[in-house]
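User: Predict the structure for this protein chain, please.
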Amino acid sequence: MATAHPSPSLQSSLDQRRFVGWGLFWGAIVLAIMGCWLNVKYLDIPDAVVWALWLLAAGALVLAILQWRRPATLDDAALTGQRRLVATILLIVGLVLVPAALWLLLRYGLQGFGESIGLLTLGCIALGAGVKLNSTTPAVPFQERLLRGVIDGRAGISTVLGVLGAALAIFAFWLARFSHAGTIEDPAPDFPLWLAPGLFGLLFLGVSAYLRFTPDLNVATARFVVLVA
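Assistant: Here is the predicted structure, written as structure tokens:
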């Protein structure tokens, strides 16, 4: 008996579901690690903040598994409704994480800069993904549009990543060497505080150089760049 293949529009929706599932899985890992780190680093942080991050991580993991599972009904309207539901959830999560990042920065100042930037970045990603998923899905698959966009805009992306990477590397060097007096009253910042922006800076500089100097950037290498960055 012949197996029925989904139409191009349905296949695009299924590809997008899997891509979103991997994004949610990544977000779950980041939120879980962030909750553990905050619980260890700040003894006076409210338990509700830590548990909220862990619950968000668990919810993201469950949602990722649901996105990976093939839906029982391959109906375009049903998939669109499920996609908009995920988009709404992501928008709500983003609206929670952005104020949480600002609260962390105001409460702990420079000491909480790294964690607040991490939460802010995650919140902005959730908001962007929510807005994107709420838009109309075109006929071209989502992954292909994303990878083609990376290939076509490689010069601009390389420049932005290079500037951002250099800025992060300089900021990490300043934190480690010049932001403190090295005394008991003004000690050096914690190791992860300056190491994190330094590592991200080196990562962005590497990806920028790869985009700039790779002569033939195809879909496979573009996918590698997206996964790394």
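The radius of gyration is 20 Å.
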